[in-house]
Fold this sequence. Notes:
22% of the residues lie in helices and 28% in strands. It is α+β, with helices and mostly antiparallel strands. The chain folds into 4 domains: 24-157, Alpha Horseshoe (Serine Threonine Protein Phosphatase 5, Tetratricopeptide repeat), CATH 1.25.40; 168-429, Neuraminidase (6 Propeller); 433-521, Carboxypeptidase-like, regulatory domain (Immunoglobulin-like); 522-638, CATH 3.30.1330.60. Strands 2, 3, 4, 5 and 6 form a 5-stranded antiparallel sheet that branches. Strands 7, 8, 9, 10 and 11 form a 5-stranded antiparallel sheet that branches. A 4-stranded antiparallel sheet has the order 1-22-21-20, with no helix packed on it. A hairpin with a 5-residue loop joins β12 and β13. The protein is elongated and about 110 Å long.
Amino acid sequence: MKKTILFFSLLVLAFISFAQGYDPEKINKKAVGFYNQALEKAQGKDYKSAIDLLQKSISTDDKYIDAYLSLAGVYGQIKDYPPSITNYEKAFILDSDYTAEYKLPYSINLAGMGEFDKALEAINNLLGKNPPKNTSTYKAAEYRKKTYEFAVEYARKHAVKSYVFAPENLGDSINSVESEYFPSLTIDGNELVFTRRLGDFNEDFFHSKKQNNNWTFAKPLTGDINTEQNEGAQNISQDGEWLVFTGCNRPRGFGSCDIYISYLTSQGWSEALNLGGNVNSDQWESQPCLSPDKRDLYFASRQFGGFGGSDIYVCHLQTNGKWSEPENLGPSINTPGDEQCPFIHADNQTLYFTSNYWPGYGDDDLFYTRKGPNGAWSNPVNLGYPVNTINKEGTLFITADGKTAYYASDRSDSKGGLDIYSFELREDVRPYKTLWVKGQVFDKKTTKGLPSGVELIDLATKQTISKVQTDETGHYLITLPIGKDYAFNVNRKGYLFYSDNFFLSQNAPDSTYEKNIPLQPIEANASIVLNNIFFDVNKYELKPESQVELDKVVQLLRDNPTIKIEISGHTDNVGKPADNLKLSNTRARAVVNYLIERGINSQRLSAAGFGETKPVADNKSEAGRAKNRRTELKILSP
């Protein structure tokens, strides 16, 4: 998962007190010759040859401690931890005093394998020998001690030992001898967009589609988005219509790196547009990520006024189509260190990011935080080993189901450089599983698509979870995180709003939804069912969850001050007809009274109860009876 690793040069000896048992001057000269050749190969990054020569050196003189230490160092450099550890231990057996300082890189290799208990023991052993406190070795040892203690405590508190981290290379259709990174997917998981480095400098965007559960051969994005300049750090919107990315040192840019956007057209992806001075500054902006409703843009920036090196910011899309000024996500996320690589999940509540400051395993670790009902972010949670390691972590993308994660790594089975992998995310660090609903909004009379506003509201908290605008033909996509009950509303001026609901707090289906929504023009006799008006059984008191819908009716009447409406109540056929008639009347009156309390003139309102006399479905099934128990709104005069 790492793009870079911390390099410890183990080929040049630091100060070490020589012990009586080991004298480098007495080593076989032929072994020394192999050793010196190995140093040259290692310095030229020819690690295979260096390993062969060091093994020859040891075969010639098996008491050559320097050769064991250097061989361990080379294996550590290529992240082949087991032989590195073995060779350190052989050197320790030969002379524990001469090799004392090497407990530091030895511990790092142990930690690289996840052996944090042993790594902590090794570093405590080194610090127990009281090395000089003004040395880099002491400072590095103290730092590593803190990270190992964190790792040991994390493993104690979390079920990390039962978790199997098994990344799968996405194969030749996606990965090549070049480096591939920054994976992002559409919400259905069927289109993957990523960055590929071509040669030493140029970066372009490629994409692949999933067919029969296999990825097609990746091709460059069509249109005008790829240029001779480098494009990178991209994120595709959940509906596949927008692509935000980073471009550096471009003409008419604001700073070193700016954030750009491209739109999908019938001719492919449009020429990129700089998002302007509200988003970009004269400093570094990068790694953008769109919220699922495309109303929030998260990114990393080094602009002045932050908490440290790079901070995470968010801009909001305003009603005029412009992005707001950046908002710093604040000290619950940002620190004096570097926070980068923001990724907001399809649930629109769980944000993943990297930080080199919050307690972790060393360098950049991945964390997540959740947005509360009041918009505040929770304290960051470390994703733990083995997702986080002792090295530098990069961006992460998690699919809508919350289970599958994608990332770039230079693992041993890489096709070349960084490759894209997928793996199953540990259960306790997953975002909320998210379904989605898509369809088209259209005029009920003409069937013409209508650009409209679509809202998803948490019935319990009354918080708007998502708010999207359809495209020009009325098509929309909106996400549905499970675990909550939602009001679903569609609004357009001149039309009655549409209401529906999704009850996902108890039982959530595995399938997604498709809803094509006819809107009715505001005219005499037009009517809608108010699906989010709730009463207890045989009661007429409005439940608190009804407020979201009732306030929509209030807004409708305020926006259209001349219309008059009728609120009608209906029941199923369970019970006595007279009782049902009375109940429907009192329920309709309860709704009218709410509207009057909110300032609507009573002359514009009437209430009627029809009991069981106007069913819209068969009363023989519970599903049919549920449809018959309803509250309707009818336009009496526009």
